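Please produce the structure of this protein holding glutamine.
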Amino acid sequence: MTNKTKYLFFTGGVVSSVGKGVTAAALGLLLKERGFKVAVQKLDPYINVDPGTMSPYQHGEVYVLDDGAETDLDLGHYERFIDIRLSKVSNFTTGQVYAEIISKERRGDYLGGTIQVIPHITNEIKRRIGLAAKETKAEIMMLEVGGTVGDIESQPFLEALRQLRNEVGRENCLFIHVTWLPVIGATNELKTKPTQHSVAALRSIGISPNIIIARADQDIEKSLCEKIALFCDVEKDAVIPMKTADVLYDVPLMLEKLGVGDLVVDKLKVKATRKPNMRPWKKLVDEVRKPKPSVKVALVGKYVELQDAYMSVREALKHAALANSVEVDISWIHSADLEKDKGWDIIKQTDAILVPGGFGSRGVEGKILASRYARENKIPYLGLCLGMQVMCIDFARGVLDLEDANSSEFDRASEHPVIDLMHDQRSITDLGGTMRLGLYPCLLTKNSKAGLAYGVPRVDERHRHRFEFNNDYRQKFEEAGMIFSGLSPDGRLVEIVELKDHPYMVASQFHPEFLSRPMNPHPLFVGLVKAAKEKGKK
Ligand code: GLN
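Below is the modeled complex.
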Protein backbone atom coordinates (compact mmCIF):
# COMPACT_ATOMS: atom_id res chain seq x y z
CA MET A 1 0.00 0.00 0.00
CA THR A 2 1.51 3.31 -1.01
CA ASN A 3 2.18 5.81 1.74
CA LYS A 4 1.62 8.75 -0.53
CA THR A 5 -2.06 8.00 -0.90
CA LYS A 6 -4.44 9.64 1.54
CA TYR A 7 -7.71 7.94 2.36
CA LEU A 8 -11.16 9.38 2.90
CA PHE A 9 -13.61 6.85 4.28
CA PHE A 10 -17.34 7.53 4.04
CA THR A 11 -19.76 5.72 6.29
CA GLY A 12 -23.49 6.21 6.65
CA GLY A 13 -25.50 6.43 9.81
CA VAL A 14 -29.13 6.24 10.98
CA VAL A 15 -30.82 5.46 7.65
CA SER A 16 -29.91 4.42 4.14
CA SER A 17 -30.38 6.81 1.20
CA VAL A 18 -28.99 9.60 3.33
CA GLY A 19 -27.06 11.04 0.38
CA LYS A 20 -23.67 9.58 1.17
CA GLY A 21 -22.84 8.91 -2.46
CA VAL A 22 -23.80 12.37 -3.64
CA THR A 23 -21.90 13.97 -0.75
CA ALA A 24 -18.78 11.94 -1.49
CA ALA A 25 -19.04 12.67 -5.22
CA ALA A 26 -19.45 16.39 -4.57
CA LEU A 27 -16.48 16.42 -2.22
CA GLY A 28 -14.50 14.57 -4.87
CA LEU A 29 -15.13 17.48 -7.20
CA LEU A 30 -13.94 19.99 -4.58
CA LEU A 31 -10.71 18.02 -4.16
CA LYS A 32 -10.17 17.63 -7.90
CA GLU A 33 -10.71 21.37 -8.23
CA ARG A 34 -7.89 21.87 -5.72
CA GLY A 35 -5.55 20.00 -8.03
CA PHE A 36 -5.59 16.56 -6.40
CA LYS A 37 -5.76 13.32 -8.31
CA VAL A 38 -8.78 11.65 -6.74
CA ALA A 39 -10.09 8.14 -7.14
CA VAL A 40 -13.20 6.56 -5.73
CA GLN A 41 -14.19 3.12 -4.64
CA LYS A 42 -17.60 1.92 -3.51
CA LEU A 43 -17.61 -1.09 -1.18
CA ASP A 44 -20.95 -2.86 -1.31
CA PRO A 45 -21.70 -5.25 1.54
CA TYR A 46 -24.33 -7.37 -0.24
CA ILE A 47 -23.51 -10.91 -1.31
CA ASN A 48 -24.36 -10.62 -5.00
CA VAL A 49 -21.15 -10.57 -7.02
CA ASP A 50 -22.39 -7.43 -8.73
CA PRO A 51 -25.74 -5.63 -9.03
CA GLY A 52 -26.13 -6.97 -12.58
CA THR A 53 -28.33 -9.82 -11.43
CA MET A 54 -30.44 -7.68 -9.08
CA SER A 55 -33.85 -6.32 -9.89
CA PRO A 56 -33.89 -2.56 -10.41
CA TYR A 57 -36.65 -2.52 -7.79
CA GLN A 58 -34.12 -3.75 -5.24
CA HIS A 59 -31.14 -1.80 -6.28
CA GLY A 60 -32.03 0.98 -8.71
CA GLU A 61 -30.10 1.35 -11.91
CA VAL A 62 -27.13 -0.80 -12.81
CA TYR A 63 -24.43 1.63 -13.86
CA VAL A 64 -22.10 0.33 -16.57
CA LEU A 65 -18.47 1.46 -16.87
CA ASP A 66 -16.15 1.62 -19.89
CA ASP A 67 -14.64 -1.77 -19.11
CA GLY A 68 -18.07 -3.36 -18.80
CA ALA A 69 -18.23 -3.53 -15.00
CA GLU A 70 -21.85 -3.54 -13.82
CA THR A 71 -21.84 -1.34 -10.76
CA ASP A 72 -23.77 0.58 -8.17
CA LEU A 73 -25.59 3.74 -9.24
CA ASP A 74 -23.43 5.84 -6.93
CA LEU A 75 -20.65 5.36 -9.47
CA GLY A 76 -22.83 7.43 -11.78
CA HIS A 77 -22.82 10.27 -9.27
CA TYR A 78 -19.04 10.04 -9.07
CA GLU A 79 -18.57 10.14 -12.82
CA ARG A 80 -21.04 12.99 -13.28
CA PHE A 81 -19.77 15.20 -10.46
CA ILE A 82 -16.04 14.58 -10.72
CA ASP A 83 -16.14 14.07 -14.50
CA ILE A 84 -13.90 11.01 -14.40
CA ARG A 85 -14.07 7.59 -16.08
CA LEU A 86 -14.06 4.80 -13.54
CA SER A 87 -13.04 1.17 -13.98
CA LYS A 88 -13.98 -2.11 -12.38
CA VAL A 89 -11.65 -1.61 -9.42
CA SER A 90 -13.93 1.20 -8.26
CA ASN A 91 -16.66 -1.10 -6.99
CA PHE A 92 -16.59 -4.43 -5.19
CA THR A 93 -19.00 -6.46 -3.13
CA THR A 94 -18.94 -9.02 -0.33
CA GLY A 95 -19.82 -11.55 -3.05
CA GLN A 96 -16.61 -10.80 -4.97
CA VAL A 97 -14.51 -10.96 -1.83
CA TYR A 98 -15.91 -14.33 -0.77
CA ALA A 99 -15.79 -15.74 -4.32
CA GLU A 100 -12.07 -14.98 -4.42
CA ILE A 101 -11.32 -16.48 -1.01
CA ILE A 102 -13.40 -19.60 -1.63
CA SER A 103 -11.78 -20.30 -4.99
CA LYS A 104 -8.35 -19.97 -3.35
CA GLU A 105 -9.43 -22.36 -0.61
CA ARG A 106 -10.63 -24.88 -3.22
CA ARG A 107 -7.28 -24.62 -4.98
CA GLY A 108 -5.60 -25.49 -1.70
CA ASP A 109 -3.83 -22.16 -1.36
CA TYR A 110 -4.35 -21.99 2.39
CA LEU A 111 -2.46 -25.21 3.14
CA GLY A 112 -4.78 -26.55 5.78
CA GLY A 113 -5.53 -23.23 7.47
CA THR A 114 -8.92 -22.26 8.79
CA ILE A 115 -10.39 -19.46 6.70
CA GLN A 116 -11.85 -16.67 8.82
CA VAL A 117 -13.41 -13.25 8.45
CA ILE A 118 -10.38 -11.82 10.23
CA PRO A 119 -7.81 -12.00 8.69
CA HIS A 120 -8.75 -13.62 5.37
CA ILE A 121 -11.81 -11.63 4.40
CA THR A 122 -10.47 -8.36 5.80
CA ASN A 123 -7.14 -8.93 4.03
CA GLU A 124 -8.89 -9.47 0.74
CA ILE A 125 -10.85 -6.23 1.27
CA LYS A 126 -7.62 -4.37 1.97
CA ARG A 127 -5.95 -5.98 -1.04
CA ARG A 128 -8.68 -4.67 -3.31
CA ILE A 129 -8.42 -1.19 -1.84
CA GLY A 130 -4.66 -1.26 -2.36
CA LEU A 131 -5.16 -2.44 -5.92
CA ALA A 132 -7.40 0.53 -6.68
CA ALA A 133 -4.96 2.94 -5.06
CA LYS A 134 -2.14 1.49 -7.16
CA GLU A 135 -4.04 1.32 -10.42
CA THR A 136 -5.47 4.82 -10.18
CA LYS A 137 -2.29 6.34 -8.72
CA ALA A 138 -4.62 8.49 -6.65
CA GLU A 139 -3.35 11.10 -4.25
CA ILE A 140 -6.66 10.92 -2.44
CA MET A 141 -8.72 7.73 -2.43
CA MET A 142 -12.33 8.13 -1.44
CA LEU A 143 -13.96 4.95 -0.17
CA GLU A 144 -17.66 4.73 0.41
CA VAL A 145 -18.98 1.83 2.46
CA GLY A 146 -22.49 0.94 1.32
CA GLY A 147 -25.27 0.41 3.83
CA THR A 148 -25.61 1.82 7.32
CA VAL A 149 -23.31 1.46 10.29
CA GLY A 150 -24.76 -1.26 12.50
CA ASP A 151 -25.65 -3.58 9.61
CA ILE A 152 -24.21 -7.05 10.07
CA GLU A 153 -23.00 -7.16 6.45
CA SER A 154 -20.85 -4.07 6.62
CA GLN A 155 -18.84 -5.11 9.68
CA PRO A 156 -15.95 -6.83 7.85
CA PHE A 157 -15.58 -3.74 5.66
CA LEU A 158 -15.42 -1.40 8.64
CA GLU A 159 -12.99 -3.69 10.40
CA ALA A 160 -10.80 -3.70 7.28
CA LEU A 161 -10.82 0.10 7.21
CA ARG A 162 -9.93 0.22 10.89
CA GLN A 163 -6.93 -2.03 10.21
CA LEU A 164 -6.00 -0.08 7.11
CA ARG A 165 -5.91 3.13 9.12
CA ASN A 166 -3.20 1.65 11.32
CA GLU A 167 -1.27 0.27 8.37
CA VAL A 168 -1.16 3.48 6.34
CA GLY A 169 -0.96 5.74 9.38
CA ARG A 170 -3.73 7.62 11.12
CA GLU A 171 -2.48 10.90 9.70
CA ASN A 172 -3.27 9.61 6.22
CA CYS A 173 -6.92 8.76 6.87
CA LEU A 174 -10.12 10.59 7.58
CA PHE A 175 -13.44 9.05 8.49
CA ILE A 176 -16.46 11.03 7.35
CA HIS A 177 -19.76 9.86 8.79
CA VAL A 178 -22.92 11.01 7.03
CA THR A 179 -26.03 10.85 9.20
CA TRP A 180 -29.66 11.91 9.24
CA LEU A 181 -31.44 14.15 11.73
CA PRO A 182 -35.10 13.15 11.95
CA VAL A 183 -37.86 15.63 12.83
CA ILE A 184 -40.47 15.11 15.50
CA GLY A 185 -43.65 16.41 13.96
CA ALA A 186 -45.37 17.62 17.15
CA THR A 187 -42.58 20.03 18.04
CA ASN A 188 -40.98 20.33 14.60
CA GLU A 189 -37.69 19.58 16.27
CA LEU A 190 -34.60 18.02 14.71
CA LYS A 191 -33.23 15.18 16.81
CA THR A 192 -29.57 14.21 17.20
CA LYS A 193 -30.00 11.04 19.25
CA PRO A 194 -29.92 8.60 16.31
CA THR A 195 -26.68 10.26 15.17
CA GLN A 196 -25.22 9.85 18.65
CA HIS A 197 -26.16 6.18 18.63
CA SER A 198 -24.73 5.53 15.20
CA VAL A 199 -21.46 7.19 16.18
CA ALA A 200 -21.45 5.06 19.33
CA ALA A 201 -21.88 1.98 17.13
CA LEU A 202 -18.97 3.10 14.97
CA ARG A 203 -16.78 3.74 18.01
CA SER A 204 -17.60 0.34 19.44
CA ILE A 205 -15.75 -1.18 16.49
CA GLY A 206 -12.80 1.12 16.96
CA ILE A 207 -13.58 3.92 14.55
CA SER A 208 -14.07 7.52 15.65
CA PRO A 209 -15.29 9.74 12.87
CA ASN A 210 -13.22 12.85 12.15
CA ILE A 211 -16.02 14.69 10.39
CA ILE A 212 -19.78 14.30 10.73
CA ILE A 213 -22.03 15.51 7.96
CA ALA A 214 -25.49 15.87 9.48
CA ARG A 215 -28.22 15.78 6.85
CA ALA A 216 -31.76 17.06 7.24
CA ASP A 217 -34.57 18.42 5.11
CA GLN A 218 -34.57 21.71 7.00
CA ASP A 219 -32.15 24.28 8.42
CA ILE A 220 -29.87 22.90 11.09
CA GLU A 221 -28.99 25.33 13.85
CA LYS A 222 -25.44 25.83 15.03
CA SER A 223 -26.36 24.78 18.56
CA LEU A 224 -27.40 21.40 17.23
CA CYS A 225 -24.02 20.92 15.56
CA GLU A 226 -22.35 21.85 18.84
CA LYS A 227 -24.43 19.26 20.61
CA ILE A 228 -23.43 16.61 18.08
CA ALA A 229 -19.78 17.64 18.49
CA LEU A 230 -20.01 17.30 22.26
CA PHE A 231 -21.80 13.97 22.33
CA CYS A 232 -19.89 12.40 19.47
CA ASP A 233 -16.42 13.60 20.41
CA VAL A 234 -15.82 15.47 17.17
CA GLU A 235 -14.40 18.97 16.82
CA LYS A 236 -17.03 21.68 16.56
CA ASP A 237 -16.00 22.86 13.12
CA ALA A 238 -16.06 19.26 11.91
CA VAL A 239 -19.82 18.87 12.27
CA ILE A 240 -21.26 20.01 8.97
CA PRO A 241 -24.94 20.92 8.76
CA MET A 242 -26.11 19.82 5.34
CA LYS A 243 -29.65 20.65 4.37
CA THR A 244 -31.21 18.80 1.44
CA ALA A 245 -30.43 20.67 -1.78
CA ASP A 246 -33.23 21.77 -4.07
CA VAL A 247 -30.88 21.31 -7.03
CA LEU A 248 -28.67 18.21 -7.00
CA TYR A 249 -25.73 20.00 -8.60
CA ASP A 250 -25.78 22.62 -5.85
CA VAL A 251 -24.33 20.09 -3.39
CA PRO A 252 -20.66 20.82 -4.27
CA LEU A 253 -21.32 24.56 -3.93
CA MET A 254 -23.02 24.05 -0.58
CA LEU A 255 -20.16 21.91 0.72
CA GLU A 256 -17.64 24.48 -0.50
CA LYS A 257 -19.53 27.27 1.21
CA LEU A 258 -19.56 25.27 4.42
CA GLY A 259 -15.79 25.00 4.17
CA VAL A 260 -15.68 21.23 3.79
CA GLY A 261 -13.09 21.29 0.98
CA ASP A 262 -10.60 23.28 3.08
CA LEU A 263 -11.43 21.29 6.20
CA VAL A 264 -10.56 17.99 4.50
CA VAL A 265 -7.36 19.37 2.98
CA ASP A 266 -6.40 20.74 6.39
CA LYS A 267 -7.11 17.54 8.26
CA LEU A 268 -5.32 15.38 5.70
CA LYS A 269 -2.35 17.76 5.88
CA VAL A 270 -2.04 17.98 2.13
CA LYS A 271 -1.34 21.03 0.00
CA ALA A 272 -3.74 22.15 -2.67
CA THR A 273 -1.98 23.21 -5.84
CA ARG A 274 -4.74 25.54 -6.92
CA LYS A 275 -7.84 27.33 -5.75
CA PRO A 276 -11.09 25.66 -6.69
CA ASN A 277 -12.88 27.37 -9.53
CA MET A 278 -16.55 26.75 -8.85
CA ARG A 279 -17.78 29.39 -11.29
CA PRO A 280 -18.88 26.94 -13.98
CA TRP A 281 -20.93 25.02 -11.39
CA LYS A 282 -22.39 28.20 -10.01
CA LYS A 283 -23.41 29.15 -13.54
CA LEU A 284 -24.92 25.73 -14.09
CA VAL A 285 -26.97 25.87 -10.90
CA ASP A 286 -28.10 29.45 -11.60
CA GLU A 287 -29.18 28.25 -15.02
CA VAL A 288 -31.12 25.35 -13.49
CA ARG A 289 -32.93 27.72 -11.14
CA LYS A 290 -33.87 30.23 -13.84
CA PRO A 291 -37.51 29.94 -14.87
CA LYS A 292 -37.65 28.42 -18.34
CA PRO A 293 -40.31 27.11 -20.68
CA SER A 294 -40.77 23.41 -20.16
CA VAL A 295 -40.96 20.45 -22.50
CA LYS A 296 -42.89 17.34 -21.59
CA VAL A 297 -41.18 13.99 -21.94
CA ALA A 298 -43.05 10.74 -21.35
CA LEU A 299 -40.68 8.10 -20.02
CA VAL A 300 -42.27 4.74 -20.74
CA GLY A 301 -40.64 2.10 -18.58
CA LYS A 302 -41.48 -0.79 -16.36
CA TYR A 303 -39.73 0.18 -13.13
CA VAL A 304 -41.22 3.67 -13.02
CA GLU A 305 -42.38 3.37 -9.41
CA LEU A 306 -38.73 3.58 -8.46
CA GLN A 307 -37.18 6.45 -10.34
CA ASP A 308 -33.71 5.43 -9.17
CA ALA A 309 -34.01 2.63 -11.71
CA TYR A 310 -33.62 5.31 -14.40
CA MET A 311 -31.22 7.61 -12.54
CA SER A 312 -28.80 8.25 -15.42
CA VAL A 313 -31.63 8.63 -17.96
CA ARG A 314 -33.28 11.27 -15.78
CA GLU A 315 -29.98 13.11 -15.28
CA ALA A 316 -29.15 12.95 -19.00
CA LEU A 317 -32.56 14.48 -19.79
CA LYS A 318 -31.87 17.27 -17.33
CA HIS A 319 -28.45 17.94 -18.84
CA ALA A 320 -29.93 18.06 -22.33
CA ALA A 321 -32.74 20.36 -21.20
CA LEU A 322 -30.23 22.78 -19.78
CA ALA A 323 -28.35 22.81 -23.07
CA ASN A 324 -31.64 23.71 -24.79
CA SER A 325 -32.57 26.36 -22.18
CA VAL A 326 -35.73 24.52 -21.20
CA GLU A 327 -37.02 22.68 -18.19
CA VAL A 328 -37.82 19.02 -18.63
CA ASP A 329 -41.05 17.80 -17.17
CA ILE A 330 -40.90 13.99 -17.05
CA SER A 331 -44.08 11.91 -16.88
CA TRP A 332 -43.32 8.42 -15.65
CA ILE A 333 -45.55 5.99 -17.48
CA HIS A 334 -45.84 2.33 -16.72
CA SER A 335 -45.65 0.54 -20.07
CA ALA A 336 -48.06 -2.15 -18.84
CA ASP A 337 -50.65 0.61 -18.28
CA LEU A 338 -50.57 1.49 -21.97
CA GLU A 339 -51.55 -2.11 -22.70
CA LYS A 340 -54.61 -1.58 -20.51
CA ASP A 341 -55.59 1.67 -22.22
CA LYS A 342 -54.30 3.74 -19.35
CA GLY A 343 -51.81 6.62 -19.57
CA TRP A 344 -52.65 7.55 -23.17
CA ASP A 345 -53.95 10.97 -22.13
CA ILE A 346 -50.38 11.80 -21.06
CA ILE A 347 -48.84 10.36 -24.23
CA LYS A 348 -51.21 12.46 -26.32
CA GLN A 349 -50.06 15.63 -24.56
CA THR A 350 -46.36 14.94 -24.55
CA ASP A 351 -43.62 16.66 -26.57
CA ALA A 352 -41.40 13.58 -26.65
CA ILE A 353 -41.35 9.90 -25.77
CA LEU A 354 -38.39 8.07 -24.29
CA VAL A 355 -38.26 4.30 -23.97
CA PRO A 356 -35.32 3.21 -21.79
CA GLY A 357 -33.67 -0.20 -21.41
CA GLY A 358 -35.24 -3.22 -19.81
CA PHE A 359 -35.38 -6.99 -19.60
CA GLY A 360 -38.15 -9.57 -19.75
CA SER A 361 -41.51 -9.53 -21.43
CA ARG A 362 -43.63 -7.73 -18.84
CA GLY A 363 -44.82 -4.43 -20.29
CA VAL A 364 -42.97 -4.82 -23.55
CA GLU A 365 -46.11 -4.61 -25.71
CA GLY A 366 -46.86 -1.25 -24.07
CA LYS A 367 -43.44 -0.02 -25.09
CA ILE A 368 -44.05 -1.18 -28.65
CA LEU A 369 -47.33 0.75 -28.64
CA ALA A 370 -45.56 3.88 -27.37
CA SER A 371 -43.05 3.56 -30.16
CA ARG A 372 -45.87 3.11 -32.67
CA TYR A 373 -47.57 6.25 -31.41
CA ALA A 374 -44.33 8.23 -31.78
CA ARG A 375 -43.84 6.93 -35.32
CA GLU A 376 -47.37 7.50 -36.53
CA ASN A 377 -47.80 10.89 -34.90
CA LYS A 378 -44.28 12.16 -35.53
CA ILE A 379 -43.54 12.63 -31.85
CA PRO A 380 -39.81 12.98 -31.08
CA TYR A 381 -38.61 9.63 -29.75
CA LEU A 382 -35.44 8.34 -28.18
CA GLY A 383 -35.01 4.61 -27.61
CA LEU A 384 -32.28 3.22 -25.40
CA CYS A 385 -31.29 -0.42 -25.84
CA LEU A 386 -34.65 -2.17 -25.40
CA GLY A 387 -36.10 1.16 -26.60
CA MET A 388 -34.32 0.57 -29.90
CA GLN A 389 -35.45 -3.02 -30.08
CA VAL A 390 -39.14 -2.14 -29.58
CA MET A 391 -38.83 0.57 -32.23
CA CYS A 392 -37.64 -2.10 -34.67
CA ILE A 393 -40.39 -4.51 -33.64
CA ASP A 394 -43.06 -1.87 -34.19
CA PHE A 395 -41.55 -0.93 -37.55
CA ALA A 396 -41.60 -4.55 -38.66
CA ARG A 397 -45.20 -5.02 -37.58
CA GLY A 398 -46.61 -1.65 -38.62
CA VAL A 399 -44.64 -0.76 -41.75
CA LEU A 400 -43.48 -4.10 -43.12
CA ASP A 401 -46.67 -5.92 -42.14
CA LEU A 402 -44.75 -8.66 -40.38
CA GLU A 403 -47.48 -9.11 -37.81
CA ASP A 404 -45.68 -11.73 -35.81
CA ALA A 405 -42.40 -9.75 -35.57
CA ASN A 406 -40.80 -9.82 -32.15
CA SER A 407 -37.57 -10.22 -30.26
CA SER A 408 -36.62 -13.79 -29.51
CA GLU A 409 -36.24 -12.61 -25.91
CA PHE A 410 -40.04 -12.39 -25.73
CA ASP A 411 -41.21 -14.93 -28.27
CA ARG A 412 -38.90 -17.77 -29.19
CA ALA A 413 -41.32 -19.07 -31.77
CA SER A 414 -41.72 -15.78 -33.64
CA GLU A 415 -41.59 -16.23 -37.39
CA HIS A 416 -39.88 -12.85 -37.69
CA PRO A 417 -37.32 -12.43 -34.93
CA VAL A 418 -36.19 -8.97 -36.04
CA ILE A 419 -34.33 -8.80 -32.75
CA ASP A 420 -32.40 -11.95 -32.00
CA LEU A 421 -29.90 -13.35 -29.56
CA MET A 422 -26.36 -12.28 -30.47
CA HIS A 423 -24.36 -15.09 -31.96
CA ASP A 424 -21.77 -15.29 -29.19
CA GLN A 425 -24.53 -15.28 -26.56
CA ARG A 426 -25.97 -18.60 -27.71
CA SER A 427 -23.78 -20.89 -25.66
CA ILE A 428 -23.91 -18.78 -22.49
CA THR A 429 -25.81 -20.22 -19.55
CA ASP A 430 -24.72 -18.02 -16.62
CA LEU A 431 -26.63 -14.78 -16.26
CA GLY A 432 -24.13 -12.74 -14.26
CA GLY A 433 -21.63 -10.56 -16.13
CA THR A 434 -22.12 -12.32 -19.46
CA MET A 435 -23.88 -9.73 -21.60
CA ARG A 436 -22.17 -7.61 -24.24
CA LEU A 437 -20.90 -5.07 -21.75
CA GLY A 438 -18.99 -1.82 -21.82
CA LEU A 439 -17.45 0.41 -24.42
CA TYR A 440 -17.63 -0.50 -28.12
CA PRO A 441 -16.98 1.70 -31.13
CA CYS A 442 -19.73 2.84 -33.48
CA LEU A 443 -19.32 4.45 -36.90
CA LEU A 444 -21.89 7.10 -37.76
CA THR A 445 -23.55 7.79 -41.08
CA LYS A 446 -22.79 11.29 -42.31
CA ASN A 447 -25.76 13.63 -42.41
CA SER A 448 -27.99 11.25 -40.53
CA LYS A 449 -29.69 12.68 -37.45
CA ALA A 450 -27.30 10.77 -35.19
CA GLY A 451 -24.29 11.76 -37.31
CA LEU A 452 -25.29 15.42 -37.18
CA ALA A 453 -26.06 15.29 -33.47
CA TYR A 454 -22.64 13.88 -32.63
CA GLY A 455 -20.75 15.87 -35.26
CA VAL A 456 -17.97 13.26 -35.39
CA PRO A 457 -17.57 10.11 -37.51
CA ARG A 458 -16.91 7.66 -34.67
CA VAL A 459 -18.00 7.32 -31.08
CA ASP A 460 -17.46 4.85 -28.27
CA GLU A 461 -20.48 4.05 -26.14
CA ARG A 462 -21.35 1.78 -23.24
CA HIS A 463 -23.42 -1.35 -23.80
CA ARG A 464 -25.40 -3.85 -21.77
CA HIS A 465 -27.43 -6.27 -23.86
CA ARG A 466 -27.75 -9.84 -25.15
CA PHE A 467 -30.00 -9.29 -28.15
CA GLU A 468 -29.34 -7.37 -31.35
CA PHE A 469 -30.92 -6.34 -34.62
CA ASN A 470 -31.25 -9.34 -36.93
CA ASN A 471 -29.34 -8.56 -40.13
CA ASP A 472 -31.61 -10.78 -42.24
CA TYR A 473 -34.06 -7.89 -42.11
CA ARG A 474 -31.70 -5.01 -42.75
CA GLN A 475 -32.44 -4.55 -46.41
CA LYS A 476 -36.21 -4.71 -45.97
CA PHE A 477 -36.07 -2.14 -43.20
CA GLU A 478 -33.87 0.17 -45.24
CA GLU A 479 -36.15 -0.02 -48.27
CA ALA A 480 -39.06 0.99 -46.06
CA GLY A 481 -37.41 4.09 -44.58
CA MET A 482 -35.34 2.99 -41.62
CA ILE A 483 -31.79 4.30 -41.55
CA PHE A 484 -29.04 2.36 -39.82
CA SER A 485 -27.06 5.40 -38.87
CA GLY A 486 -24.66 3.75 -36.44
CA LEU A 487 -22.87 0.45 -37.06
CA SER A 488 -19.98 -1.42 -35.50
CA PRO A 489 -16.76 -0.82 -37.49
CA ASP A 490 -17.11 -4.21 -39.22
CA GLY A 491 -20.63 -3.25 -40.22
CA ARG A 492 -22.16 -6.30 -38.59
CA LEU A 493 -23.83 -4.89 -35.51
CA VAL A 494 -26.56 -2.29 -35.65
CA GLU A 495 -25.83 0.37 -33.05
CA ILE A 496 -28.20 3.21 -34.02
CA VAL A 497 -31.41 3.28 -36.01
CA GLU A 498 -33.52 6.25 -37.06
CA LEU A 499 -36.54 7.00 -39.20
CA LYS A 500 -36.21 8.91 -42.44
CA ASP A 501 -39.43 10.90 -42.51
CA HIS A 502 -39.75 11.86 -38.93
CA PRO A 503 -38.61 14.93 -36.97
CA TYR A 504 -36.54 12.81 -34.54
CA MET A 505 -36.99 9.12 -34.07
CA VAL A 506 -33.60 7.84 -33.05
CA ALA A 507 -32.65 4.85 -30.96
CA SER A 508 -29.42 3.21 -29.90
CA GLN A 509 -28.47 -0.31 -28.90
CA PHE A 510 -26.05 1.22 -26.38
CA HIS A 511 -26.79 3.34 -23.33
CA PRO A 512 -25.88 6.96 -24.05
CA GLU A 513 -27.19 8.02 -20.63
CA PHE A 514 -24.05 6.71 -18.93
CA LEU A 515 -21.83 9.23 -20.69
CA SER A 516 -23.93 12.36 -20.24
CA ARG A 517 -22.38 14.95 -17.95
CA PRO A 518 -23.93 18.13 -16.55
CA MET A 519 -21.37 20.26 -18.41
CA ASN A 520 -21.22 17.95 -21.38
CA PRO A 521 -24.72 16.72 -22.23
CA HIS A 522 -25.12 13.72 -24.51
CA PRO A 523 -25.79 14.60 -28.17
CA LEU A 524 -28.62 12.08 -28.63
CA PHE A 525 -30.46 13.49 -25.60
CA VAL A 526 -29.77 17.06 -26.72
CA GLY A 527 -31.25 16.11 -30.09
CA LEU A 528 -34.39 14.70 -28.47
CA VAL A 529 -35.01 17.74 -26.28
CA LYS A 530 -34.35 20.08 -29.20
CA ALA A 531 -36.93 18.27 -31.29
CA ALA A 532 -39.35 18.27 -28.35
CA LYS A 533 -38.87 22.02 -27.95
CA GLU A 534 -39.64 22.58 -31.62
CA LYS A 535 -42.71 20.41 -31.39
CA GLY A 536 -43.83 22.32 -28.30
CA LYS A 537 -43.55 25.61 -30.20
CA LYS A 538 -45.87 24.35 -32.89
N1 GLN B 1 -33.23 -7.13 -22.95
C1 GLN B 1 -32.56 -6.56 -24.06
C2 GLN B 1 -31.26 -7.28 -24.38
O1 GLN B 1 -30.74 -8.01 -23.57
C3 GLN B 1 -32.28 -5.09 -23.82
C4 GLN B 1 -31.29 -4.83 -22.74
C5 GLN B 1 -31.31 -3.42 -22.25
O2 GLN B 1 -32.24 -2.67 -22.51
N2 GLN B 1 -30.30 -3.05 -21.49
O3 GLN B 1 -30.75 -7.15 -25.45
